[in-house]
Design goal:
single chain; 186 residues; alpha+beta; 3-stranded antiparallel beta sheet; two-stranded parallel ribbon; 19% strand; globular; hydrolase; endonuclease; HNH endonuclease
C-alpha cells in the first residue's frame, strides 16, 4: 500500500498510476522516471527528461490493460517528442528490464534489426537513494467496457494489434539473446 513513511527496510512505496486512469502515471512515478532517466533514453539524445514525454515501453493495451504496457517504473521511460513519435508511428522498438544485479537495461532495435544498447548508466548510479523507492503494482484491470456502439473491424487483428505483437516478439527474441549470451567478458 502507498505510504509516506519508510518501510522497515528503508524503502518507500508510492502509487504507480492515477486511480481514475491506469494509463496515466502518478505525479510520484512521473517525477521518479524523469529523475531516474535524466534525459531522453534514445541512444545519443541529450534532451532533458523534463522537456520530453514519458512513454510506455510495451504498448499500453487500452482494451485489456492487464495484457501489456503496464504503468510501472520499468514499463516507462523518458523520450524526446521526435523519439516518442518515431517509436509510436515508426518501426523502431525499445525494450527495458532490470538485469540480475538490479540495473536498468534499455535497448533499441532499428527497423533493419540492428540492436542499439541504451546508456550504460542511469541517474540511479548518481543517486542510489532512488533504488529505495517502490511503486504499487497495478491492480487487476476493470472488466472491458461492453456498452460501445462503435462497429469493430471485421479483421481478426487490427494493424495496431499486429504491430504490437511483432514488437512483443522482437522484445522476447532480444531478451532470449541476452540471456543465452551469458555474462559480459569484463
Amino acid at each position: 500500500a502507498p505510504t509516506t513513511e519508510p518501510e522497515p527496510d528503508g524503502t518507500f512505496t508510492l502509487p504507480a498510476h492515477l486511480p481514475s486512469d491506469p494509463y496515466r502515471p502518478s505525479a510520484a512515478l512521473d517525477t521518479f522516471i524523469r529523475l531516474r532517466d535524466g534525459y531522453c533514453t534514445e541512444p545519443g539524445c541529450l534532451t532533458s527528461a523534463w522537456r520530453g514525454d514519458l512513454d510506455h515501453v510495451d504498448e499500453y493495451d487500452h482494451d485489456c490493460p492487464h495484457n501489456g504496457g503496464q504503468t510501472t517504473e520499468v514499463g516507462l521511460n523518458a523520450k524526446c517528442r521526435p523519439g516518442h513519435l518515431l517509436k509510436t508511428f515508426g518501426d523502431w522498438v525499445d525494450d527495458q528490464w532490470r538485469d540480475a544485479d538490479g540495473r536498468l537495461v534499455t535497448e533499441y532495435i532499428t527497423p533493419e534489426g540492428l540492436v542499439l544498447p541504451g546508456e550504460a548508466e542511469t541517474q540511479e548510479d548518481l543517486f542510489p537513494g532512488l533504488r529505495r523507492i517502490r511503486f504499487t503494482a497495478p491492480a487487476q484491470a476493470p472488466p472491458p467496457h461492453t456498452g460501445s456502439t462503435i462497429e469493430r473491424s471485421t479483421r481478426v487483428n487490427t494493424r495496431v494489434a499486429n504491430k504490437h505483437a511483432r514488437r512483443r516478439a522482437e522484445r522476447a527474441r532480444n531478451r532470449k539473446r541476452v540471456t543465452d549470451a551469458g555474462p559480459p567478458p569484463f
